[in-house]
Amino acid sequence: MEIFLNVWNNWSLYQKVTIAILLTLLFFTIVLSVKFVTKSKQYTIFTIISLIMSAILTIVSFVFVNVVFNTTITYMYMLAPIIILMINLFNISSSIGFYIKNKKQKKLDIDTLKKEFLMDTVHLTVLIIPLFSVFCIFVTEPLLTFILLTMLVSIAVLWINYSLVYWLFHKNV
Q: What does the CA dihedral 20, 168, 148, 74 come to, rounded to 10 degrees?
């Protein structure tokens, strides 16, 4: 709780309002873009749940690191939600690309969509682990915790997305 109190007390009203407006606009822009591009209720719901889950998981991970490891959450940690959001958007957009390609060709099969999403999730996981691990070799404690936290939350978001796709998408897309 101290994390949020420090942020709340140290930020000006302008910063709080600006960040809130930017995050809200970003959320609605992503959701409306997915709705417009896919015209699918399931993809829109998937995107909303995915974005909310990644935000919740990021906040919970900050609290966990602060409480369990007694690590101070500094300004460096403001970069983590951006990295996690970008990785989440890569995952969502690769699935949307596959969906649109096969929907136009009238050969969309839900099992194929799920298999393709699984492959994309595995590929992103295999890319993220060595990428973040290379940075871990040369850094010290505060930065190491940040990198490991960002890597673990990013991978967790990818696999939560896969479970959402498996749960949300049925034969009636």
A: 10
